[in-house]
Design goal:
The complex is a heterodimer of chains A (about 110) and B (about 300). Chain A contains no helices and seven strands. With about 110 residues, chain A is mainly beta. In chain A, strand 6 and strand 7 form a beta hairpin. Chain B has about 300 residues and is mainly alpha-helical. Chain B is built from eleven helices and seven strands. The longest helix of chain B has 25 residues. The chains are: A mainly beta (about 110), B mainly alpha (about 300).
């Protein structure tokens, strides 16, 4: 499972910017059945967080109404440059993380 | 990706630059303004004279379809994307929105993986930078492989490379790994105009592919051409029938919620007409893929596309 954190071109300090996130995940709702009739167990990203060098920017929970490979976008004002890290955890207990360096121009 | 597009690093690291200034714009026209006007005038003239001719001779309105290699029917080419909603077009136009790029990221990892002392060579060991070396490669497939004396598509070539050169096990068809690599190789040709060269060895397969395209099959007793040539642009239930062009595959389909190959898409159609569903990588599907690639000549490659 991979993820993408996407930053706009030339982010500036103290200016509102959008951060885009794309996480590769099947997001099984738990409402589906296999051909054999067995229920496909629910497996969605239950928690995720986005931090800047440990400072939590966004955190949240996703539910069964989210599509596979969820795409999320947040508006933030970053206090300083640093590593933006994304972490997530799904119902099966698999976790993942991705980080990118964000250099802000003054 | 150009420097003013979204990237996974703000600045510092050089983002991938495609030769020819390929930005996150789908369906880039290769014609200049003057060319376009001249083309329109000639098309208009052609349409008028054709219309007169049809009227005078009272021929059936259905255009005469020329047969044989090199003379394949040439409808006005139309990308499947032109039938899509504005949201879907925007998703494909922006690489930072296109979910298929999750597979591209994985493909870039796989491309460089494995090289080093005591390890099999990686893709990059022989082919170096994929963006340069793989440019225009995807449109050369399917091709006739004299060694295996069969038709192979891009997936078949990647697996042949893995087993013969890298001494690694072949990747399963439609696995995330194989899709990532085919998507990556196809991305290198994005924006190029689909052009095939007709090799003599391809003619038997091409004719068989055309025959498959035109033969009725399944319980619904329909051929590919009944929908995608004769009724393209018409409605089928809630959907608009496309021309069935192959230039955006491997594509991210919302229905699948993942990237899939052209053959997977063809299988979905076979299921739709309640026909026997040929196995992935089979001779039948590859021949059809070959025919479609000739039929779509002239379209700009959109891989990895986004479709409903």
């Amino acid at each position: 499972m991979t993820a993408r954190i996407l930053l706009p071109p030339n982010p500036k300090a103290g200016v509102k910017m959008d951060i885009r996130i794309l996480i590769q995940h099947p997001m099984e709702t738990g409402f589906r059945y296999e051909i054999s009739g067995a229920a496909v167990p629910k497996n969605v990203i239950k928690a995720f967080s986005l931090d800047l060098d440990g400072l939590i920017l966004v955190s949240g929970e996703l539910g069964t109404g989210t599509s596979a490979n969820p795409f999320l976008q947040f508006s933030v004002i970053l206090p300083h440059s640093g590593f933006i890290q994304l972490k997530w955890l799904d119902d099966e207990g698999h976790s993942g993380s991705e980080r990118v360096l964000c250099n802000l121009s003054p | 990706m150009t420097s003013d597009s979204w990237s996974s690093q703000a600045f510092g690291a050089q983002p991938q630059v495609f030769e020819g200034g390929l930005g996150p714009v789908a369906l880039r026209s290769v014609k200049t303004g003057g060319d376009r006007i001249r083309a329109w005038v000639s098309v208009l003239g052609l349409c008028l004279s054709l219309g007169l001719l049809l009227l005078l001779l009272s021929l059936p309105l259905q255009a005469q379809v020329l047969k044989g290699p090199g003379l394949i029917e040439s409808p006005r080419l139309r990308s499947g994307l032109s039938y899509a909603s504005a949201d879907l077009k925007a998703t494909q136009a922006d690489d930072s929105l296109n979910p298929a790029f999750l597979w591209i990221d994985q493909g870039q990892v796989l491309w460089n993986e494995g090289s080093g002392p005591g390890k099999p060579p990686s893709c990059a060991s022989c082919h170096q930078d994929w963006a340069q070396s793989m440019r225009g490669v995807s449109m050369k497939y399917p091709r006739w492989d004299p060694g295996q004396s069969r038709l192979i598509n891009l997936e078949g070539q990647i697996n042949a490379c893995r087993t013969q050169r890298q001494h690694l096990p072949a990747l399963a068809y439609e696995s995330d790994e194989l899709l990532s690599l085919t998507a990556l190789v196809s991305l290198a040709s994005r924006g190029m105009v689909l052009k095939r060269s007709l090799d003599e060895s391809l003619i038997p397969s091409l004719l068989k592919g055309q025959a498959r395209y035109e033969s009725r099959m399944g319980q619904n007793n329909l051929a590919c051409m009944h929908c995608h040539t004769q009724n393209a642009g018409q409605r089928l239930g809630g959907e608009t029938i496309s021309q069935g062009q192959p230039h955006a595959y491997p594509a991210y389909r919302l229905e699948w919620q993942r990237v899939g190959s052209l053959q997977k898409r063809l299988r979905a159609c076979l299921s739709g007409v309640k026909a026997e569903i040929w196995p992935l990588g089979s001779e039948e599907l590859t021949e059809l893929e070959l025919y479609l690639s000739f039929r779509g000549e002239g379209l700009a490659i959109e891989s990895p596309g986004v479709r409903r």
